[in-house]
Give the backbone structure.
Amino acid sequence: MIQVVPEMQARGYHHGDLRTALIKAGLALLEREGPGGVSLRAVARQVGVSQAAPYAHFHSKRELMSAIATVGFSRLRDLIAPLASDPARSLSDLGLAYLDFARANPGLYRLMFGSDEHIDMRNEHLSTASRQALELLAMKAGRNGSDPIRDPGPIAAWSLVHGLVMLLMDEKLPSGLDQSMPAILRLLEPGVAEYVKEREL
Amino acid sequence: MIQVVPEMQARGYHHGDLRTALIKAGLALLEREGPGGVSLRAVARQVGVSQAAPYAHFHSKRELMSAIATVGFSRLRDLIAPLASDPARSLSDLGLAYLDFARANPGLYRLMFGSDEHIDMRNEHLSTASRQALELLAMKAGRNGSDPIRDPGPIAAWSLVHGLVMLLMDEKLPSGLDQSMPAILRLLEPGVAEYVKEREL
DNA sequence: ATCATGATCTTGACACTGTTAAGAACGCCG
DNA sequence: CGGCGTTCTTAACAGTGTCAAGATCATGAT
């Protein structure tokens, strides 16, 4: 027997692929309960191992959560990548796609873009996955060659969408706003155009 | 002796004013550690009472946190109240004041406007304090008589400022943006004006 | 083929958390 | 002065993240 790759052989003392199983179970629990509701022990229970088993693969709960957030950023990148970067409609279209992602994965979004109490942005995999997704997003959203640091346009756009996502998820806004989203997102475009014209960029 | 109000008599078996002392200590701990770092036992320890003492004044930790958030909304209302409601500059000025409040009390802001895992919006005091502050804010920001439900302007404005606050607090944005804030906030005004003109309001 | 080694997993424990029960100490009203 | 309700303490429970010790397994070296 020439090393049968242990796919899906969850029987016996050794699990076989505990690391990814923990991440998958964590993702499920995350969407069901939110970031605060994920407990390492519950994830282990779900997978059918003891409470301390995860520590063979993650130094801490925070590291598991960081791994989960990492797959979140990969998903976001894959979702953004095929979108056209039409400079005219890009802002609101990108905003809608971003919004869809957040509303389809609220727990994951909160984990990725919330406070760093649950994840560790110094984690290498996480920080590169995050950078890749956000740089792609900035590339599709910004005018080519603009300085994303000083340019208020992209910052305002991201803030607007992020704030909208958060307020919607936390139910701080009245319900039934779904068809207003495009109009809300487009409100920024005249201001950005005007800013660009004034600075003659 | 006509009922000497027990101010500041923290000695003996009975504390004297434990309820407000807990709220005050909770506020301090909240700003030092964030909402997730506040523990009922730590607050009790700070005040010098046993772990179960708070339960004479609050049914649960969530109720203490709700009381803390309530003073947060009162503070916000008092801070917004004296501001002029100049319809021309109101949006960005209000936004700057709101932003100042959030950055001066990041833990409190997160508690007030974050997810409802820590506070209970069905709490009567909290919901009225919240409503008062937000209605005042909407009144100062909105055109008089506009329907705040369907009008995308106020929603976009709140979302923009809230998102900006969150991204700044969570250090997702590059540093040194302070002087860009007015420009960022003003980016919404042309779009709102245009929207109003189109609808001929 | 055996064996040692390192990776993986279990059991048991520790300190911490929110919360409740039982009872002690206190202020106040009759 | 006596009872009573409020306030507070101690003790306990289940849950958490984390670590230490040890058991089990897979695999490479001999």
In short: The domain at 61-199 of chain B is CATH 1.10.357.10 (Tetracycline Repressor; domain 2).
